[in-house]
Amino acid sequence: MEQYYHIRRASYLGSFMIHIEFDNGDHKILDCNSWLNENMGDFEDLKIESNFKQFEIKSGLLTWPNGYDLAPEYSYQSSKPYIFEKGRQTFVIT
Predict the structure, then answer these.
(1) What is the residue range of 82's domain?
(2) For residues 17 and 43, what is the distance between their CA atoms, to the nearest angstrom?
(3) Which of 2, 26, 34, 89 holds its CA 20 to 30 A away from the CA of 78?
């Protein structure tokens, strides 16, 4: 059985990507472009960057003022390790 982690912190990186820190210490990048390109029905307003950036963390998951939310298991499975460069060194935070 897979274990799922709640979101501790999240910050907007731009281009509909979110840096997420999970409660197990993993840092990941969630690229939301793929699901935003789908028909969002009542949540089409999230395709506007100013609306998308208004997410919050409630009960360990990402939520938006329009009622849309992402389950932590989706956020964890769909995200990639956070990679950043400092000088000439590359760090991978998992």
Answers:
(1) 7-93
(2) 17
(3) 89
* Cβ atoms of residues 22 and 29 within 8 Å: no
Place of tokens 């990679």: 83
* pLDDT per residue as tens digits for the range 50-79: 999 999 999 998 999 999 999 889 999 999
For tokens 């329009």, the residue is 66
Say if 2 falls within a structural domain.
no
Nearest residue to 62 (alpha-carbon basis) of 92, 93, 91, 35:
35
- The whole-angstrom separation of Cα 94 and Cα 80 is 8
- In a domain, residue 65? The reply is yes
For residues 7 and 80, give the distance between their C-alpha atoms in angstroms, rounded to a whole number: 14
> Which sign, positive or negative, has the C-alpha torsion 14, 69, 57, 8?
negative
Is residue 1, in this structure, part of any structural domain at all? no
pTM given for the model: 0.84
User: Based on the structure, what is the number of domains in the chain?
Assistant: 1
